[in-house]
Amino acid sequence: MDRENFMTRFTVEHSGLLDVIRQGLLTGAEEKKTVEAELYKLNVYGEGAFFKPHLDTPRSTSMFASLVVVFPTPHEGGELVLRHGGKEWTSGVWAEPELIDATYWEFSEAINKFLITAEKILPPYRFGVYDVLVLPPSFPYGGMENACLTFLTPTLLVGDRTLVDVVVHELTHSWFGNGVTYVSACIPYVPPSADNISPTSHRQANSTHFWLNEGWTTYIERVLLQLLHTPADRGFSFLIGRTSLTNALKQYTSRPKYQRLVIDFDVGEDPDDAYSTVPYEKGANFLLHLERMLGGLDAFLPDTCA
Ligand SMILES: [Zn+2]
User: Fold this and answer.
1) I need a labelling partner for 195 at 20 to 30 A (CA). Which of 20, 50, 273, 279 fits?
2) Residues spanned by the domain of 4
3) What highest taxon heads this organism's lineage (predicted)?
4) Phi, psi (deg, nearest 5) at residue 284
């Protein structure tokens, strides 16, 4: 036997993995508890082989997790999918150590509820993981959608879970994000050339249909508010939005182009100049109008809205 090909010097104890697990899972008084790993199984997969879906059986009362270590061998595929309660996604929270307890308390329950509710009216969540990251106070937005990981301001940590609905909007972007709406619907990217040193930038080109992203997200966000709370919550959110739409339209009285839902940007024009609640509110109201024309939510949504 060629020892170099069959042996590894890897040991869990010396890898530092257990420290990471302990710091990630144990907080407060539990922080100093020791975590031990016991080798259960070594699987060696040949070409085309795979591990069938299975449920880990607890091997003792003190077992709380399975640690899967994948050795670096050349392979394709091999995605690990965690299923829980029939769902193919996991959710979690991230924050600096001093905020992690508050973050977990504020958001962990709500996130799962939001995902389950969203899947009642939308196709299944496809990203596998949905986490939120609470950033330091210098983060300049309330929330920012990133695939799998929504960024949030720490000002949402109010201790009574009254501001968690911000996550509904960011979560909805998982279905109506830049990659599936506003990029694919836009005019092609024009690269720089000798006779055109100021080409249509990718960003400018795609901002034309920005409302497909934010209008749909705002519309679905409010449907979810109705399902999570009451129809009045949805209506109230449209009312609040109307005020901000009126203000945004006033702001652009001298530049009426930016009052439009679809904006044809000129070369060199900065889409940030046009950024306002117009694509959010006008977009959501346009979709609400279509919904009402077609006979309400039951007729408009692909799935029945209970
Ligand atoms: Zn948004």
Assistant:
1) 273
2) 1-80
3) Eukaryota
4) -65, -40
For the chain, what is the domain count? Answer: 3
Domain boundary (127, 159, 175) is at 175
pLDDT at 186: 45
116 and 212 belong to one structural domain: no
**Residue 219 among the catalytic residues:** no
Distance 76 CA to ligand 1 centre (A): 35
Predicted model pTM:
0.69
Domain boundary among 126, 155, 175: 175
Q: Mean pLDDT highest for which of 27-36, 41-50, 55-64, 158-167?
A: 158-167
Distance from C-alpha of 154 to C-alpha of 161, rounded to nearest angstrom:
13
- Has 130 been annotated as catalytic? no
Residue tagged active-site, from 106, 125, 145, 170: 170
Distance (Å) from CA 185 to ligand 1 centroid: 17
pLDDT in tens, 49-89: 877 777 778 888 888 888 888 877 777 766 666 666 667 78
pLDDT of 130 higher than 50? yes
Same domain, 17 and 119: no
Spatial separation of the C-alpha atoms in residues 158 and 110, rounded to whole Å? 14
Q: What are the tokens at 66? A: 């399975």
Do residues 33 and 22 touch, judged by C-beta distance below 8 A?
A: yes
